[in-house]
Specification:
Structural class: mainly alpha
Radius of gyration: 16 Å
Distance between the termini: 18 Å
Number of strands: 2
Order of helices and strands: HEEHHH
Largest sheet: 2 strands, antiparallel
Low-confidence stretches: 2-7
Number of helices: 4
Mean pLDDT: 86
Helix content: over 70%
Length: 134
Amino acid sequence: MDESRDSTGPLKGQVKDQVEELGRQGLVILAVLQLLMLAALYTRTEPHPPLVIPLFALAPFLSASIALAVAGLLVPGRWLSVAASITALISFGPQKWFDASFPQIWPAVILAQIAVAMVTIALFRDWQERRSAQ
């Protein structure tokens, strides 16, 4: 999320700050959820994610996803936030609604999807403002 202020008025600047904050909150939610899933994986606390999925081992993937979310918080920019959202959806995306473990993991799945929506709204509003400024 870009930290620049809009100089067209205090109300518009306030809305921009709120939208940026929404995106940051979404990234924090994604980082915390994935960190806790990684902890559950390491401690084998049920329900924990599988150790390995067909494409890769899950612990390094979760670690990379957490790193992207934290980097998106620390470094203003769209691409880190997009990458953090995409990697989170691999773990918590709509496909999880049809997973056999959904009755146990639904709070994390729904919260992660809401967090991705929060980041997406912030990115979309940022894109709109940049486009209208041109």
